Amino acid sequence: MKYLYLWLLLALPTLGRAQTAGLDTTRGRYYQPVFASASVTRDVAYGSATTYAGATQTLLMDVYQPAGDTVQRRPLIIFAHGGGFIAGTKADAYPVAFCTRLARLGYVVASIEYRLGYAATGFGAAADTAKIAAAALRGGFDMKAAVRYFRQDAAGPKTYRIQPSYVVAAGSSAGAFAALETGYLDKASEVPSYLDLAALGGIEGNSGSPGYSSAVAAVINLSGATESPSIIEAGNAPLCSAHGTADTTVPYFQGRIGSLLPPKYVYGSGRLNPRAASLGITNVLRRFSKAGHVPFEASQAYADTVFWTVRDFLRPLLKRSGVALAARAAAAPAVFQAYPNPAREVVQLALPADFAHLGEAELLDVTGRVVRRFRPQAPTEQLPRGGLPAGLYALRFAGQAPVRVVFE
């Protein structure tokens, strides 16, 4: 029996890197357009959320699938359009072309709409910086909800037949801001202090499908940026970027966002990919010398280069084990212990003396579904099994490495 548990612990797909086998990439799949066309399911509701103006918006997406495909477990790419958080739709020319090409390779691709808009009070005002930062967060929260939506479907009806360990966040311009936040913004401490994170929905947002992981296998950043390169940490998902060096809308290196947006200082691909490289994170940067903003949306030559770059970046990742469902990979060891492990009825938790800063704990099953939440009341705490079935779980606190829990 102990050898069975050892195997299960090594196989756990919810901690660090999952041990599931890579996807089948033979016969040209994910490299050549092995499918003649893509089928599109339009206006799929994946969640709802409150806009900056206080209205409730139903979040919609178009789902592209390889026409006639029979494979039961397929990688998923979630793509967010550009438009400066004030314009753009999932049906714009570039998202349609890009998603169709990826679907013909064998991917399932979701082109999402997300909340747009902010109330600007005048360029140069500090309030405007907060408003555009909040708009970026809302976009990231909506994309996280889309990730969770597909994980929930994979745990239930399997409508889209996706492999939940292989979900990629992607976007162009403003959509790339959302993808970067989906992939790397996973701690409250990484959110600017001038924002009311709780009012915005917490670090995961509240746009839909709570209780499932929003972790992704990779991030595709097309002409995007972040508040700070430091949100990329050791153990995070691989990064693929494409960016024009003469971009005056979203800076290649760093600077204020362009003339159509309220002022906000950001860091572009020329800072993000070197940050990833310094941490040992797999990354690719396609640098378009002297090109402006999103040249791939105006030129077929640039569009082809971006497509081939993304294709060649993703395909080797599909051969690897999948990524964390229950928690994002963490470089540091867990700050708490759980014992005995395996246990029959109760697991004892040993927490640090300043345990209160850890906040709420979550227990997740092997599908990444949250099965229990609680807030510790003392440095020594008990985790009763209750009605949970025997099996493997992951116990986590936000921003901390998870711990395996096994109930016999």
From TrEMBL:
Lineage: Bacteria, Pseudomonadati, Bacteroidota, Cytophagia, Cytophagales
UniProt KW Signal keyword: yes
Molecular-function GO terms, alphabetical: hydrolase activity
Extent of the signal sequence: 1-18
PANTHER family: AB HYDROLASE SUPERFAMILY PROTEIN C4A8.06C (PTHR48081)
Alphabetic keyword roster: Hydrolase, Signal
Residue span(s) of domain BD-FAE-like: 61-227
Protein name: Carboxylesterase family protein
